Amino acid sequence: MAKGKTTCRILKEIRRQIAEANDIEYVVEECQYKGDCKGTCPKCEAEVKYLENQLHKRQMLGKAVVVAGLSLGVIPAMAQNIQNTDDVVTKSSICLSDTVINAKNTPSGKYIIRGKVVDRNNSAIDWATIQYDDKEKGSKTILSEDDGVFAIGVSQLPIKLKVIYTGYIDIEFEVTEKNYNKFFQVTLANDPDAFKDVIGATGADGW
Fold first, then answer.
1. What residues does 32 pair with on adjacent strands?
2. Which residues are within 8 A (CB) of 154 and not within 5 positions of it... i.e. 6 or more apart?
3. Do 127 and 60 form a contact (C-beta atoms < 8 A)?
4. Partner of 196 at 20 to 30 A CA spacing, among 3, 77, 81, 205?
5. For the residues 67-85, what does the mean pLDDT come to?
6. Side-chain half-sphere CA neighbours of 17 within 13 A
7. Residue 141 half-sphere exposure toward CB, CA atoms < 13 A
8. What is the pLDDT of residues 3-15, one digit of tens each?
């Protein structure tokens, strides 16, 4: 339990430093959890998702995302925690379903591709970036809606989609005439190397 509590404090400090460096409102609260601590919990993961959303929105608005300045001792600890977490998904994946969830905005096009972007806890990821090349419209980028759902209209198939979100592993997949009418659930895995560049950007004392 002591190791779990230590990991929890380290990860909370990472979140506080990232929020402060990017001028994101983030209130650090002491953990009130009683019992065997694994270093993370639903409340901690909700804080992570909030921070990821804010960072991704900054990027989409053309603002710089600052990660330099984090403590050198904190980064390896975070990576070690990710590697040792039993329920971590290490690879982003695609699941096809016959149950379709319609997006709020329905695009035009000969083929309509529908899907939803979620994390490993099946929580919706809004503002995820979906990139693709349409032979008639050229390179296009859309964002998932506030419930993670997206819809794309294209003129020809097959077509490749790439889903990107800050702090997660990108995934690219092909949509064909055989599967375009299915519902694509895109599950993004956390990227353990998301803060790798920070190590080279920090000084000897980590600041």
1. none
2. 109, 110, 111, 113, 132, 134, 137
3. yes
4. 3
5. 46
6. 18
7. 7
8. 666 777 777 777 7
